[in-house]
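Catalogue entry: protein

Sequence with per-residue tokens
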Amino acid sequence: MGSHKDKTGKTKVGMFLQKFAPNILDVVGNVLPDQGALGIIKNLIDKDDKLTPEQKVEALELLKIDLENTKDARDMQKIALQQDDLFSKRFIYYLAIFWSVTSSAYFFLATFTKVINEEMADIILGFLLGTVAGSIINFFYGSSAGSKEKDRK
């Protein structure tokens, strides 16, 4: 995790928007799939009257940091693909396969078998769905914002 996230994995921009402009998150969730997310988020932040100019600058900076973090991970993978070591080239794929299989097995077991501690099972399922699965999909396919920004370059 980068320094732009807290110890629970929540991004600073997400926590900032949730605290100071929760209506932006609701609106963004409805429009992200069809339009360029970065431009939409910038416009929503700029037009929100509840945010001070300093808060707007901070939110945009945190958003930029979030996007750069994913770009850095992809750049690291490009360098790994240039190595001669086959394991290094494929490590990210092995890791994604491991977590995909592990998550799928846990989803299946937690859904179709008797669970001793349902609260713990719910917490782990939430973590696997929200963090592991989301991160894998984001890395290989990009987020709405990251994909649009990447395509512009």
About this structure: Residues 53-81 form the longest helix (29 residues).
